[in-house]
């Protein structure tokens, strides 16, 4: 187990290099250059002193070959120096770590909502195969995967925020609220809509997947054996079927973690939730390249790690898989 | 006469043997017709295409015509079926023109990325060896870059506009097709009929074109519909975020973006919900029916799939 984990982790290293290179190339392909913001902030200083520009180019080593710049950039990332944001004028790492908890709060809540809704619906649909309930989950799943998340979010805002006025429509807190419980309640009220919108879209994917995984298990011989031995349906499903069906389900739930971060980008923007996604979106709008690229790099690393997590979980929960025999496609 | 007799004889024989009657294409068509949702999807999509591409020819109003006598007119009001926006643009007309752009971007980028994916997949699967390994590793890596954030950044690199948005969606849209096609090609390469034509001295390109391509086409058609729904959703998301199609040219996504400022209804006294509802509703209906269509095609084209109904 340990050696398998180590091997998979080591495999990530070359992938990390390639991804970081692709992302670095994107950074360099973007229009404008880092000195642009500086010149816009202080046009007179540059107009008076044309030499200054050349000096700064030299100082920031903007004319170095691409490959040298890449390794410099990589070295800085590895020692935790992500550079400055041209928009906020503070270190990028500071910005990311101040926004990360908000995004985690949103995604984890949405993730839990997704699991809590999808598991019972998927299981029930599989048990009552071809019933009215099953067909309605099919239609529901189609609706879920076809729904543009930002439209769903906007309609929720109009209905619950503007017309009914039940919930706050944007942000993460109401200004000037004190007291632990009041703050907690306020946070919760702000969280409800974005988390449900983000979680709901994933439910549609998961329900179909859980149904299919359970149906496959319900076809197995040992399920028939369990029934033949007189076990109650509830017991067969909970103890025999679900345990085995959980293996692919857990994997897909872990594999989908990056989708939450991707989806959070849109949901955070619509609800003005001060998280990573909104940070990145604003960085893109303000041409704050360094910030945008580092957010992307961060998301890419999360994707890699959740792939690793899914792989490892798959092996942990399924004792049938022999590590050395497992062929990777 | 002789022909119809022969056909009758064939039908009879097939009826006795209990096998379905007709050629492969006829069978596919029959199976597709059985899938109610897919038929509905096809009909609605054709209607939408006619509505968006032919419809504008029959209306006098252009998408940037302003009617200052009817600002924020609500739906079903006189002259404006779906209402108007803050400067008197007719929402109905803009949805037609916007749909043109959204559908065009979706169709072109999904078809192009599928073709690219198909070609790379065929090459990778057929050549095998080191090329296959390298290409597949590359696909793995491309797939592990979070899609939507990359689209955001790419739209900065390529700039906004119809052509660049198609580019952006194509560059990151081909990997799944490649993976599927490569897998099928690998197994088909080992099949007996490919072996046979190899021993007969058929050249590689002809083998790919004549023996492998026809077998992967069904699955490619199905993934094209999947790609189409992805592309339409991504384009509208990007345009909604202000990084896709730019106003005044309407697209369903940027119409939603435009409605954002009035969502609270503070400047108008009431909420102009139709500005938000209709463009999004059209995106939703289009993507939903593309998905229905894809589902039906998958059931119909897969010979192993036994119809459930």
Task: Provide a short characterization of the protein structure.
The complex is a heterodimer of chains A (329) and B (309). By secondary structure, chain A is mostly helical.
Question: How would you explain this protein's 3D organization?
Answer:
- Chain A has helices at residues 2-29, 35-41, 43-48, 50-59, 66-78, 92-127, 132-146, 149-163, 180-218, 221-228, 233-255, 257-271, 276-285, 289-317.
- Chain A is mainly α.
- The longest helix of chain A has 39 residues, at 180-218.
- Chain A starts with a helix and ends in a 12-residue tail after the last helix.
- Chain B starts with a helix and ends in an 8-residue tail after the last helix.
- In chain B, α4 runs antiparallel to α10 (204-240), α10 packs parallel to α11 (252-259) and α10 (204-240) runs antiparallel to α12.
- Chain B is built from 12 helices and no strands.
- Chains A and B meet through α1, α7, α8, α12 and α13 of A and α6, α10 and α12 of B.
Give the SSE layout.
The complex is a heterodimer of chains A (329) and B (309).
Chain A: H1 2-29, H2 35-41, H3 43-48, H4 50-59, H5 66-78, H6 92-127, H7 132-146, H8 149-163, H9 180-218, H10 221-228, H11 233-255, H12 257-271, H13 276-285, H14 289-317
Helix pairs in contact in A: 1-14, 6-7, 6-9, 6-12, 7-9, 8-9, 8-12, 9-11, 9-12, 10-11, 11-14, 12-13, 12-14, 13-14
Chain B: H1 2-17, H2 24-34, H3 36-53, H4 91-127, H5 129-143, H6 147-158, H7 162-171, H8 175-189, H9 192-199, H10 204-240, H11 252-259, H12 273-301
């Amino acid at each position: 187990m340990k050696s398998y984990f180590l091997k998979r982790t080591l495999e990530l290293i070359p992938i990390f290099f390639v991804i970081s290179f692709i992302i670095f190339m994107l950074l360099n392909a973007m229009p404008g250059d880092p000195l642009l913001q500086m010149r816009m902030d202080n046009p007179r200083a540059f107009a008076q002193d044309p030499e200054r520009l050349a000096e700064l180019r030299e100082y920031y080593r903007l004319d170095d070959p691409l490959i040298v710049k890449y390794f410099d950039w990589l070295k800085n990332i590895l020692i935790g120096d992500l550079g400055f944001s041209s928009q906020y004028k503070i270190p990028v790492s500071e910005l990311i770590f101040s926004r990360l908890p908000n995004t985690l709060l949103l995604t984890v809540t949405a993730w839990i909502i997704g699991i809590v809704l999808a598991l019972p619906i998927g299981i029930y649909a599989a048990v009552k195969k071809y019933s009215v309930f099953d067909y309605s989950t099919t239609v529901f799943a189609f609706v879920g995967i076809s729904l543009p998340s930002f439209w769903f979010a906007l309609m929720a805002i109009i209905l619950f925020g503007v017309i009914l006025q039940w919930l706050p429509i944007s942000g993460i807190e109401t200004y000037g609220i004190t007291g632990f419980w009041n703050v907690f309640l306020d946070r919760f009220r702000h969280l409800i809509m974005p988390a449900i919108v983000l979680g709901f879209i994933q439910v549609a994917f998961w329900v179909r997947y859980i149904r299919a995984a359970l149906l496959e298990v319900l076809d197995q011989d040992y399920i028939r054996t369990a029934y033949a031995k007189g076990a109650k349906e509830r017991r067969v499903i909970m103890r025999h079927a679900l345990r085995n069906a959980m293996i692919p389900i857990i994997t897909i739930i872990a594999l989908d973690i990056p989708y939450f971060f991707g989806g959070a980008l849109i949901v955070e923007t619509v609800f003005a939730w001060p998280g990573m996604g909104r940070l990145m979106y604003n960085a893109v709008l303000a041409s704050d390249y360094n910030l945008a690229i580092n957010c992307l790099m961060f998301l890419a690393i999360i994707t890699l790690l959740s792939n690793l997590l899914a792989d490892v979980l798959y092996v942990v929960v399924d004792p049938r898989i022999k590590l050395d025999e497992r062929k990777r496609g | 006469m002789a022909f119809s007799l022969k056909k009758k004889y064939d039908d009879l024989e097939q009826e006795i043997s209990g096998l379905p009657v007709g050629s492969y294409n006829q069978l596919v068509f029959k199976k597709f017709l059985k899938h109610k949702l897919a038929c509905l999807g096809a009909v609605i999509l054709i209607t939408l295409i006619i509505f968006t591409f032919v419809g504008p020819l029959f209306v006098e109003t252009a998408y940037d015509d302003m009617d200052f006598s009817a600002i924020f007119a609500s739906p079903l009001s006189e002259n404006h079926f779906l209402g108007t926006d803050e400067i008197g643009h007719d929402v109905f007309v803009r949805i037609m023109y916007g749909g043109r752009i959204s559908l065009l971007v979706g169709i072109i980028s999904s078809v192009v990325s599928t073709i690219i994916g198909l070609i790379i997949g065929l090459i990778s699967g057929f050549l095998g060896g080191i090329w296959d390994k390298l290409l597949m590793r590359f696909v793995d890596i491309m797939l592990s870059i979070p899609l939507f954030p990359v689209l955001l950044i790419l739209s900065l690199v390529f700039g906004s506009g119809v052509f660049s948005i198609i580019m952006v969606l194509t560059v990151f849209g081909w990997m799944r097709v490649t993976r599927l096609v490569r897998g099928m090609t690998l197994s088909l390469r080992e099949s007996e009929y490919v072996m046979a034509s190899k021993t007969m001295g058929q050249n590689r390109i002809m083998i790919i074109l004549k023996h492998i391509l026809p077998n992967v086409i069904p699955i490619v058609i199905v993934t094209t519909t999947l790609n189409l729904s992805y592309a339409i959703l991504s384009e509208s998301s990007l345009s909604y975020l202000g990084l896709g199609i730019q106003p005044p040219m309407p697209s369903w996504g940027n119409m939603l973006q435009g409605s954002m400022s009035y969502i609270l209804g503070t400047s108008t006294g009431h909420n102009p919900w139709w500005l938000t509802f209709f463009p999004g509703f059209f995106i939703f209906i289009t993507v939903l029916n593309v998905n229905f269509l894809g589902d039906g095609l998958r059931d119909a084209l897969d010979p192993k799939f036994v119809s459930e109904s």
